[in-house]
Amino acid sequence: MAAPKRVSQSLRNAGVAGCASIALCLGGCRDTPASSFVAASAEAGAALSLFYTMAAVGTLLWLAVIGLAIYATWIRPGPHAAQGVRLLLFGGGVALPTVVLTALLVYGLSMPMPLEARRPDLRIEITGERWWWRVRYLDDAGHGVELANELRLPLDRHAGLALRSAEVIHSLWIPALGGKRDLLPGRVNHIGVTPTRPGLYRGTCAEYCGDGHANMGLVVEVMPAAEFDAWLAGQREDAAGPMTAAAARGAAVFLRHGCPLCHTVRGTAARGRTGPDLTHLGARHTLAAGLLPVDAPSIARWLTHPDRLKPGTLMPRFELPPPELEDLAHYLAALR
Amino acid sequence: MAAARHRQLWGVFAGPLVWFAHFLASYVTVAVWCARFTSDGGLGAARWALAALTLAAVAGELLIAWRGFKAHRHGFAIDPVHDEATSEERRRFLAFATWLLAGLSLTATVYVALPLWLLTRCG
Amino acid sequence: MNDASTGSDEERAAQESRLVAAWRPPRGWRYFSEVNNNSVGLWYILTALCFFLFGGLLAAVMRAQLAVPENELVSASRYAQLFTLHGSVMMFLFAVPIFEALAIQILPQMTGARDLPFPRLSAFGYWCYAIGGVFVCGSIFFDVAPQGGWFMYPPLSTRWQPDLGADVWLLGLSFIEIATLAAAIELIVGVLKCRAPGMRIHLMPLYAWYMLVVAGMIVFAFPPLIVGDVMLELERAFDWPFFDARRGGDPLLWQHLFWIFGHPEVYVIFLPAIALVAMIVPTFAHAPMIGYTWIVLAAVGTGFLSFGLWVHHMFTTGLPRLSLAFFSGASLAVAIPSAVQIFCFIATVLVGRFVASVPMLFVAGALAVFVLGGLTGVMVAMVPFNFQAHDSYFIVAHLHYVLFGGMVLPVLAGIYYYLPLVAGRRLGERAGRRAFWLIFGGFNLAFLPMHLSGLLGMPRRVYTYRADIGLDELNLISTVGAAVLALGFAVFLVDLWLSLRRGGVSPRDPWRAGTLEWLPRLPLHPWGLRSVPQVDTRYPLWDRPALREEVDAGRWYLPDAEEGRRETLLTGAIDAEPLHCLRVGGPSFLPLAAAVFTGGAFILATFHAWTMSAVCAALALIVVVAWLWTGTARPPEKPAKHVGRGLVLPLYAAGTGAPGWWGMCITMLADASAFAALVFGYFYYWTIDEGFLDRAVQGTGAGCAGAAAAAMLGAWASVLCAARVNRHGHAGRGRLLLGMAALGSAIAAGCALAVPASAGLAPAAHVYDAMVWLVAGWIALHVAVGLLMVLYCLARSAARLLTPVYDADLRNTALYWHFALGQGLAALAMLALFPANA
Predict the structure, then answer these.
(1) Model pTM score
(2) Complex ipTM
(3) Is B78 in contact with A101 (Cβ distance < 8 A)?
(4) What are phi and psi of A122, to 5 degrees?
(5) C821-835 pLDDT per residue, tens
(6) Interchain CB contact of B51 with C (< 8 Å)
(7) Contact criterion met (CB < 8 Å) for A94 and C75
(8) Is C453 in contact with C475 (CB distance < 8 Å)?
(9) How many whole angstroms separate alpha carbon C778 and alpha carbon A210?
(10) Does A169 contact chain C (CB < 8 Å)?
(11) A66 chain-C contacts, CB cut-off 8 A
């Protein structure tokens, strides 16, 4: 571990960036893909405005109360007449909060609600697994194409998401789309989003769900509708056969070492359902629920010690001879 | 004598109890209606039942507040002290507390009922 | 008038030596048989501070792990143990117990009582707490600590964490929750019945009002959690599928039960700390509290409103939007009483002549921190914002601001303020200021950035985070802040240690306060006041300067302990007119033994050592019966005694006058709350209806339910007749009727269990079956308790300890049976009639 080096480096950054990041939070760091200061839908934008309004009013109220307390204790103006002070008690303790809270309640009730489901243009089912996201795009007949840890959405279309869980409770949090909703065993939660800003965003699990909780990420890509349709059509295709000799050897390793027991690669004999579908793995943004980039070296690292990279993962460790490992990683990375 | 005193102490809690009854009834009605009875996600009859309940709760709280206010016999004083060691002061203190709590409960009842006015659907 | 004021100096000295003899704590190893509130309170405070330190160390390890991204200091599962224990320890082993500890220690001084009404119950509660707390905390050293979070959500905590951890949490903490209930009952009776004569309800110290509200909240909030604990443990140990969606159960019901407890719990923690502030502020403003009635309004109002907030912990579970809106409205409304309290404090300082001091410094810091936490609380009560903030570090920041400002800082202020009273010594002024600025600065440095880390996408309960999402600097700042905070506590602890060892001995009434607790000589004698005065103002020390001398001279009530017994006055709940002279329990090892065996029963059940656990439970029961037999409701040697100033008070109270009767009433309220939680569960499963209706229409044993109801009615009628004929002097006929009641209750218990048995319901098959078994078991348990009470009365009557005059036990039993009958009939009707005919 390079922890000491990182500590000193971070300490150096902390001095400058620390104060700055609080002061400049509305500027500098708001555009990280996991931030809720980025709004990719109208409802998320409204929620962000609500936050800014409340933060501003809250700061003023805090300053007023603390200012009053400082006046009463440090400036010590001497005893005040009880009658005037009682008016202050009524005004500050009763009238002011009642007015502010009533206004806030009406504001909150009349604004558009993030994640509210309407009649969808597109139906997607998301199942929380330990510890990754199973994402199925459903067609009108209810048949689906399955992928994992990646949610691509078309711009300006209303996507309806059905959230399920088979085992434990998870919560899908995509800050840019306006918040989170739980995935509960035995229930289906329907949410909906209409993304209005293209881009790459991050989502994560927000409900503690066991050892893999910290490493249960999701990439969300909002893309123009035409591009999305082309992408989805591509996803419906089976995996192309291995193009290179190494990939062909890798495919054989894949079948021989029991990978098909858990994974599906459509167009091959691999039809396992326990782990993520790998049909188009190479075209995804990340590996292992947001943990690693998708390239052959990362795949090889993941295959060799998944439990170190992601404690608790149900993916077993594969100790393969290096040539076989390379071939397998090459094969998987080439599944585009 | 003792019974009347105890009644007055319980009277202090009357306002919040009305709030709680209204709150619980609203929550249970909506939960059961939205889980078992609605076909289209609308509130239908439940909304009118809850509106009637809210009116009853508000009327009850106003009555409790009025009784407290009258028993207090001090007009609109913000903070009468009531610290004499007499039964009359104790009675007035409890009446004042009754009226204040009924006021708070009324505000809370209105807050809980506001959504019924602004939202018309379960989901 | 034969009042004590006429006595000579020698006589006064003799009185005092008799008081000393009656109240002297046992020496040597027998010291731990002491039950007086001053000893038990001190143990309680010290133990709670130890657990606080332990919880803080757990947090320090977590902050070290999060200092840099992708750190590998602790593993994911160890981290889960850390945050689970940190939350559980701080909530169950520090925040609630420290309030009970302080209340046990100072409430009797404030109300002019010699002790709380049930001192042995306090001792029992303390020992349960100490044993359970050490058990739960110790688990981390054997790597079996719970790791489901302090909220223990199933199904993670049922099917997916089969190790001991969740059992440790469920059983170890349930045991403490029961002790908490015991303390709440004691505090309510203490506030209502053990005040100084003349301390009418509108003259009580505000602290007493807060205690009344908080203890009342505990009575209603904790039982639903205990019911939830029982259900979760039944699912873990015996596979009853309460929270298993595949067999009709629902994990969300646990969340309801947990947060019906969990949200009031926040105010159970907050209000007692504000109660300390309400005592401290007038002292340093040198003015009576402005808005006494407003503060009472705020305390009572908060107490009620806090029961309408629980779903705001569940905004993201997918409940109907309208349901969320109700809870959003209630969550906003609860901010009003908080604002009222804060403005009352500021107004008091404005009116008075303010003097700066270390306790006030902590109060001011608490104000700054709490107001911020309260404002972010209003923010997260808004549903659209809650969707972002929920389960993110924004909430971590919010809840720590609320709890630190609303609890830790006021408690520290309280410790600086009350240490002279408790230990006779003062803490250092300079060290106090240093500790404050380190704690205050460190806290803000640690937690202010967390608002931002949350909004930048950091979820809660992650053992690490990625380097590429802009959280590195913020987390490092938080860790540095945590280190500064820890340093501040180190300064405080060193100061505490040094002051206790060789600090300045405090003069009497060091802060020139106005309330009764500062009247006695310091260091405090176990009996508190030399004699118990008549109180007729809210700030008697300010209003009656002569009081100190009168009290010291023994010119008021109970200046003596002629019979060598520990005594305190029992007064009317509203106007505090003296009613009885209550003899409270003295030193005894029975509470300790009862706690050890109760603890054994729970702890052995954790390891599924059922036989040993049952043996321990039986031993605990035997010890409790022995304790009641030897310690309660014993006929006095004379009916009444002089308590001073010509006042003669009876020595025995039965029925509504007896503290035991009040304790029984409050226990039944708690029991009713638990029963309401059960009924809620039953109807809840009906509303989600995953096969509930189908199984229910097959019918439950309606015949058995009818038989059980008839037998219960018979037992109830027999107990009532027994109480009546006994009062008329026919002890023999009373015993005959009690025998009939015992027979009837045995039949009722059997018939209740036959309800599900005769219908062939299998509890592991479906949640309907499990629920019917649970309710039937609940009825049978209550009838069995009634049976035990009947048998106890029978034995007491045979031993001539229950006589036509001295019949408190029988009247309490009759009271219990009223309740058990009502609850039992309601439960049986629910099982037999709903939803089969619906």
Answers:
(1) 0.95
(2) 0.96
(3) no
(4) -150, 135
(5) 999 999 999 998 887
(6) no
(7) no
(8) yes
(9) 33
(10) yes
(11) 367-368, 371
